[in-house]
Each structure stands twice: as structure tokens, then as C-alpha cells.
Amino acid sequence: MLEVRDLHVYYGEIHALKGVSLSVGKGEIVTLLGNNGAGKTTTLRTLSGLLPPRGGDVRLEGESLLGVPAHEIVLRGVAHVPEGRRIFNQLTVQENLVMGAYARSDGGIAQDLDRVFALFPRLKERRAQVGGTLSGGEQQMLAIGRALMAAPRILLLDEPSMGLAPVLVEQIFETVQDINRQGTTILLVEQNAAMALTIAQRGYVLEAGAVVLEGSARSLAENVEIRRAYLGEGA
Prior knowledge:
Rossmann fold, six-stranded mixed beta sheet, alpha/beta, 10 strands, four-stranded antiparallel beta sheet, 10 helices, globular
């Protein structure tokens, strides 16, 4: 579904992505693992059109996304939940969600709003509450729900568990699986490697802007170096 080929991205003269290649098949959950600064967020920002690559290609179902404006990429079926949530703090929960559908002109918006409220009942309870007054977990739910209002075919999730209590992390990941089961393909960036590898089918490991390892989630979870570097196990 999504093919990334030999992607090179720079911040000024800093070579941030050095030939990244990866793929995400329709219906999959694929995770990107790596330490801070490895290039995970840069990869997602490039895929969603927020950063222009200097080389390589990004294809969604065979069509290149290079040079396509970010809002048009959303219309083509790619939604991005950014690191740090980035909700509209002064808007209500429902207004935030409706903003996620700003580019849509079809008749399914009300149905998708009901879907989001079914996935996140807490948002339904707080639909009239101002977004900036929500808890961190609720804001993460809102950021995911807003992205779903764009009716994406593939969802780019950047660090959904960041800053959340363990019980909320489990809830968020269960919901990510529900979203996937409902037909949305997911590319997941996540520091919680153990949890990510539990729900993903496949994964890639980034180091210093390059893919250094890839494989099934099970093979990565069993890899000694991965266990040492990302799963907190001793040498």
C-alpha cells in the first residue's frame, strides 16, 4: 500500500534520513523503532508532506506523493497524528474532531463522528469541553480521533503513548488495534518497543537516519540486540 524508496531528507546541511526504504501492506500494523534522533518523526513528517525529500520516492498504492501538498496527501488517504498531540486547545472536543474532516465533502462525516465516539466514549462525555482542559490521555484520544475524521486509509501514529500512565497506554494500544481491525492500515512510531512489537506484524529499526534492521515483530522481539537496546534487558 505504502512504499518508501531510498528516502533522503535534510535539515539544512544535516542529513537526517539516509536512504530509508520501507513498505506497509494494506491492513498491516508496521512499527518504526529507534532511539531519539534516529529519524522516526522525520520519516512520518516526510510521508505526510510536511518535509520535502531531496531524493527517493514515496508511493501510495502506486502513485507518487512527491511534491503533493500536505492537505492533498490527507485527501488521498494519509492522516498523521503528530508527536505531542497538537490539538486545538481553544476549541471543544467536537470542534477539534470536525476540524479533522475540514477537507471532506462526502456525506459520511456524522457517521465517522459516531465511530470516534464509539472508540473513545470519554470523548463523547466531554464533547463540549475545551480541548486544552483535557488530561494528557484524553488529548491523545482526541488527536487520534481527529485524524480518523479524515477517513484515512493509512494512519501515521507518532509516539501515542508518550507521557501516559501505563493503564492509559494499554487502552490506547487496544484502540489502535480496534482501528486496524476496522480496516485502517497503521504505521506506528513508538518508544515503547515492547508494546509496539506486541501489536505490530512487522517492524523496522532506524539508527542515525538509516534502516539497520527489519523483520517480523516476533523476530525483532527475539533479537538479542533489540532486546538489549529497546526492551531494557541487560547485556
